[in-house]
């Protein structure tokens, strides 16, 4: 069991690294190259690829990978490939300037986003199917903590190291590490597969969604609305979060140097990684003690309040303590809320159709993320930071209306498969 837990944690860390290179880390690299906030916000268009994965994920559950299928199950084979391919792509990109090699750059980014969007539901479904009713929340939380650990440690260490070496070197080293770390997939037990894969249209594209609707038809609209609304605040702030602190450092010249601000931001984000993990652990505790509905309510309120330190920071610029506090509060609350969200999202699915149903739920989440995230740079540019953070505080609160429609003690029906 210890080896199994280690495997879950390690693979989740690797998936986070695959996620950061074409995402947040890329935004930091481009921000250092003085790319505008508008352009950084447009990176969120990649969420449309995440939303579209519902069209191809079912195929990856049934098509065997030559050679790999002899030592791994179908799902694990594709997870492994989806980790290796973007790692190699970004290793190649690390020898080029992204602004001078735009076609290669965009191609690698789009390919990496495709791989990540495919790998995500496959990996989460794999963890889910290998768990049981007794340890499901523990395994899913462990996966989320592993993801958060990889996301924040890798991402924030990258920002810190970028003070001393170029982003090209960072991408080169991290890509090599990811190629090696991808082999942790071989530590997981092989999933038992059906002898014959059913390639019928009905089995791949009708049955998974019919099964989902039949199980949750009493509150289906509320579930879809929650998937759409709950993480809008994260997706609005994330593309321009680093850019905000870069501008803050420039405005504080004479009080705090721009370089000191970068160190302060990096250190706070690294510490924030551990507070995010603490938030995930707290979420796991409350999930075992209270209902999903209660945890969603608390998460939505805390999410909204997490923007208050950013508003104070924008109006009381002299406080270094507030800079650190704003980042730590935001990361802690995000850790708590995201764990509640993803454990609930996975638990809604049947194990037999987990990948397809996770892709369905991600459709609503990713579509909202793409719409809001792609506008974040424009919103920050035209609203100014004060009104931008007020918008961020309010944007996810409508989720409370749909939480009301859920059963008081929400119990997810278990699949018989």
TrEMBL record:
InterPro entries: AmpG_permease/AT-1 (IPR004752), MFS (IPR011701), MFS_trans_sf (IPR036259)
Keyword Transmembrane helix: yes
SUPFAM superfamilies hit by this protein: MFS general substrate transporter
A single GO molecular function term of this UniProt record: transmembrane transporter activity
Membrane topology label: Multi-pass membrane protein
Localisation: Membrane
GO CC terms in record: membrane
Superkingdom in the source lineage: Bacteria
Transmembrane segments: 6-27, 39-57, 77-95, 102-119, 139-162, 169-188, 263-282, 294-313, 385-406
Main location group: membrane
Keywords from the named record: Membrane, Transmembrane, Transmembrane helix, Transport
Pfam families reported in the protein's UniProt record: MFS_1 (PF07690)
Annotated family: Belongs to the major facilitator superfamily.
Protein name, per record: AmpG family muropeptide MFS transporter
Species, as recorded: Candidatus Nesciobacter abundans
Highest classification ranks of the organism: Bacteria, Pseudomonadati, Pseudomonadota, Alphaproteobacteria, Holosporales
